[in-house]
Amino acid sequence: xxxxxxxxxxxxxxxxRLFVVDKFGCGKINPMKVKTGDKKLSRxxxxxxxxxxxxxxxxxxxxxxxISENFTDNVRGIAEMVIDTKKDIKTIKQTLDSHTEMIGxxxxxxxxxxxxxxxxxxxxxxxxxxxxxxxxxxxTxxxxxxELKTDMKEVKRDLxxxxxxxxxxxxxxxxxxx
Length: 178
Known about the structure:
Largest sheet: 2 strands, antiparallel
Structural class: mainly alpha
Low-confidence stretches: 1-25, 32-38
Radius of gyration: 61 Å
Distance between the termini: 171 Å
Number of strands: 4
Shape: rod-shaped
Number of helices: 2
Strand content: 5-15%
Mean pLDDT: 79
Strand order of the largest sheet: 1-2
Order of helices and strands: HEEEEH
Helix content: over 70%
């Protein structure tokens, strides 16, 4: 910082540009602008200033080199992270594709199930209709069976009376024979 004080103080006197920066970031004294008022810089001041700028430019080169190396390392790290991210994205895409395939198959299965359920519903409604018809038929059969029972009781009674009448006639004929 002390080296810059001299430059700053010198450059602020008349707001003149003391040195020019080349394309490598190194500074050189601009001899055309190194005047303060009417007075030019002496050769020793000019050499001091030039030495100061050279030293500073070497430090700047080292600093820029360190920054460049750090930047390169950071970029390399970011590049590795990008590669890992691309691998992760590829894996996620593959998983997504397989899940999409599974969802498609599930949709087909659900459509088939819906069709089957609608067929089952129509079959159940037919069965319900058949069951109601069967219930009516069973009720009719019950009444018919109860009528048959009643009729059978009458037939049994009538048969018993006929058998008794038939036996009575037989007895009558036997008695007449005796």
